[in-house]
Amino acid sequence: MGWIKDRLFPRKTAGAGSAGLCDCCNDPLERTHAYYLPTRDIGLSQAYWESAFTLCKGMIDMLDEQEQLWCFGENLRLTASQRNPWSVCESCGEFFVFDRDTARDHAVRDSRPSGNGAVDPSGCVLFAAAAWEHVFGRWPANVTPHAVVDTCDLCRRNIHSQAFSFTVSHSRMADFLAAGVVDGPSVSAAGPGKDHWEMCQPCMGRIVARCHRAGIGSV
Ligand SMILES: [Zn+2]
Ligand SMILES: [Zn+2]
User: Fold this and answer.
1) How far is the CA of 165 from the centre of ligand 2 (A)?
2) 146: pLDDT confidence band, cut at 50, 70 and 90?
C-alpha cells in the first residue's frame, strides 16, 4: 500500500526548519517565526491529530475499513518515530500547550528542545484515536476503546478516560471573555452544568495561544 503512504501522509521535513516549512501544515515558515517542539508534544495533542487526519480525510474516505485502519497505524508510527524537533507556525501553535518563549528561542537558535526524540506510539494512541473519532465519527477499531467520561463545556467534544482535560473557574472564564480570547456567543450558548468549566485539550490549546498573543496569563 505504498501509494497510499505516498499520497496520504504529509511529508515531514525532518524539522530543523531546513526546508522552511511548518511541519504541521506545510505552509512556508521562517525559523525566526517558528516554534520548535519535541515529537512528544505533537503526539500528545488531539488537536494536532485532528488537523493531520482532516488534511487526508478525502483520501481516507475512499479506502475500505482495513486500509483506513492501516493508515491510522502507519500515521501514528511514523509521527512517533520522528527524531528531530518539529518546526511549528503560529497558527498550528494553537494545537499545543507549551512555553512559547522557550520554543521560539530553540527555533531561532536551531537547537533541540528538551524531551526531544522519538516516542513510544502507545503513549500517543489515545489522542490519535480520539481525533480519529472526531474527524471520522467512529473510534478506530484496532485501538482499545476508552470510555467517554465527560463532554467539553465549550465545544461538546467527547472527553475520554485518561485524556487531558482542563478546569476553568467562572472568574477566569470572565477574564477570557473580556480579553476576547473565547467567543462570547459560543460561551453563552454552552455553559457548564457545574461550578466550573471543563474543557478539552483542543479548546484549551487555542485559548492559551490567544492569551499569549493578548499578553494575558492563561492560568
Ligand atoms: Zn502550520
Ligand atoms: Zn472543547
Assistant:
1) 9
2) very high
